[in-house]
Structure formats: structure tokens, C-alpha cells
Amino acid sequence: MKKINEWKHIFKLDPAKEISDEHLDLICESGTDAIIVGGTDNMTLDGVLDLLSRIRRSHTVTCILEVSEEEILTPGFDHYFVPMVLNSKDKKFMMDIQHKAIKEYIDMMEFSEVFFEGYCILNEDSKAFKHTNSFLPDAGDVKAYAYMAEHVFHLPIFYVEYSGTYGDPKLVEEVKEELDNTMLFYGGGIENSMQAQEMKEHADVIIVGNSIYTDIKSALKTVKAIN
Ligand code: 1GP
């Protein structure tokens, strides 16, 4: 299994969305480094377990649960990613949800399996932005968050999240310049090979989500495009 700092590409599957077995097989065997199971709306434990068991039935791809709410927490994943939303106006999305979960599960947590992600959500129209009551940071703000992710909080991951829309590659480039040890994840609106390559120029890892459901052929091509 590749180490996380060698990863380049992740597919993000939303348990609230339908995917056929055929498409799921293609995603799992695409050569992507990992699959994140995660979403914002209508996440249920049943949905998460269903997806995990369908993946595990015939594939060995690395599986990650993005734990945006405690109710969906379940054993069986290779890794657990816990978002901390740096640009949320509510402390609970940065600190309190995570604190409560750690207090409850501290004895069960294998810390090597758990990675905390410093999220910066930049698409005002996205569900994630609204749900977390985030504010729209300017480029200077984003770079300062990146600095804090690495030097203040020592987080392994800084996640530039444009969920649902293609972001600004120049900003991603500037953010990357702030980071030495913390990995830069980019997700949002990647629908084709060209966009995958453009964002991968600067980000350590690109995450492809929605296009799995809108144009699977194109989504699959993003893996080869950056390898
Ligand atoms: C969402 O960053 C991911 O959390 C991927 O974004 O769905 O827009 O590809 P898309």
C-alpha cells in the first residue's frame, strides 16, 4: 500500500448518491490512490456501510471515511479523515465536533489511521460552505490559513475545497508556496484531464467527486492524466 505522502489522486464517493456496480468497479480499479467516502447532505450510517461493503466485496483499494458527523463513524476503513473547517465562523466546525468525538472515541482511535484536515472552503454556493457557516476568504486569508495549518496546528493536510466548481489554479499555486510539510489537497470541479493536470501542477493530491456521477469516462481519465 502506498504511503499517504506518495498519493496523487483520490476519488470521493457520496453515500447519498446512487452508483451502479459497474461504475463502482471502474472507480475502484482505476488506479486511483484511494477512495474517500464522504458528503454533506443525507449521510447515513446505512449508506456508508452499504458503500463500504460494496467496495470491499471485490476490491483492495484504500478506503477512507471522511468523518463530517459522528453518526456515520464505523470501523472497517483504512483511514479516517476528520475535517477542521478553518474558515468557518462557528467554532464548532473547527474544534468542538472534533473535541467531542475524540473525548468519546479516544480509547478506540488508532491515531496512525486518523488524519485531521485543515479545510478552507472557497465556493460560496456549495452545501459545505453554507452548512459550516463559512466566510469567503481572500487570497491573503487563504495563505495565512495554510501557514497556520502547517506551523500552528501541524496538520498533515491542508484541503483547498471548491466543491462543485473549478477553482483558481493561481491561488492553489500560491498556497503551495506556503507549505513544506503539510500536504496540499485540492478538490472541486475537476471534470477532465486538463483540469486534473492543471491543479496537480501545484496540489500534492487532487480529489475528484461529482464528475463520477455526471461523466464517468472523463472522471476516470483524470487518473492517467496525472500519472
Ligand atoms: C468535494 O473536493 C471534493 O468534497 C470534490 O469536489 O465534487 O466538485 O469534484 P467535486
Question: What characteristics describe this protein?
Answer:
single chain, 227 residues, alpha/beta, TIM Barrel, eight-stranded parallel β-barrel, 9 helices, 8 strands, binds SN-glycerol-1-phosphate, GGGP_HepGP_synthase, EC 2.5.1.n9, lipid biosynthesis, transferase
Which strand order do you get reading across the main beta sheet?
A: 1-2-3-4-5-6-7-8
The helix-strand sequence is EHEHEEHEHHEHEHEHH
User: N- to C-terminal separation?
Assistant: 17 Å
Multimeric status of the protein: single chain
In total, how many beta strands? 8
Specify Rg, calculated over alpha carbons.
Answer: 16 Å
Q: What name is given to the CATH topology?
A: TIM Barrel
List unreliable stretches of 5+ residues.
Answer: none
Structural class: alpha/beta
DSSP summary: helix tally: 9
| Annotated CATH homologous superfamily | FMN-linked oxidoreductases
CATH architecture: Alpha-Beta Barrel
Tell me the domain tally.
1
What amount of the residues lies in strands? 15-25%
Categorize the overall geometry: globular
EC number: 2.5.1.n9
GO molecular function: transferase activity
Keywords: Lipid biosynthesis, Lipid metabolism, Magnesium, Metal-binding, Phospholipid biosynthesis, Phospholipid metabolism, Transferase
Pfam families: PcrB (PF01884)
Fold and architecture overview:
- It is built from 9 helices and 8 strands.
- The protein is an alpha/beta fold and 227 residues long.
- The protein starts with 8 loop residues before the first strand and ends with a helix.
- The mean pLDDT is 96.
- The protein binds SN-glycerol-1-phosphate.
- The site of SN-glycerol-1-phosphate (1GP) has 13 residues, from strand 8.
- Belongs to the GGGP/HepGP synthase family. Group I subfamily.
- It catalyses: sn-glycerol 1-phosphate + all-trans-heptaprenyl diphosphate = 3-heptaprenyl-sn-glycero-1-phosphate + diphosphate.
- One of its GO terms (molecular function) is transferase activity.
- It comes from Oceanobacillus longus.
